[in-house]
Specification:
single chain; 88 residues; alpha+beta; 4 helices; 50% helix
């Protein structure tokens, strides 16, 4: 199960959603990750402890999207976050 690594938070700055490092995480992670509204929604669900099924359920409840497309998008989103090193 993936979870948000300690030291990363979601901030909204001038209408943009950014994952930024704080504290010790800012020593090694020298950038930010920009998310769209859906990505920010999924990040918030992850931060609350949702697993991949929980993300799918929340996304389907919040947005009008077919389940297969939602699942594909969630998988790509999680891969991106894993590659960036902000989830474990």
């Amino acid at each position: 199960m993936l979870k948000v690594k300690e030291g990363f938070i979601l901030k909204e700055v001038c209408g943009e959603y950014l994952i930024v490092p704080i504290g010790e995480a800012s020593i090694d992670f020298k950038s930010v990750i920009k998310l769209n509204e859906t990505g920010a929604f999924l990040w918030e669900q992850l931060a609350k402890g949702a697993d991949e099924k929980g993300l799918l359920d929340a996304l389907l409840k919040e947005y009008d999207v077919p389940a297969d497309i939602a699942q594909s998008d969630i998988s790509a989103f999680l891969l991106h976050l894993t590659d960036a090193g902000v989830v474990e």
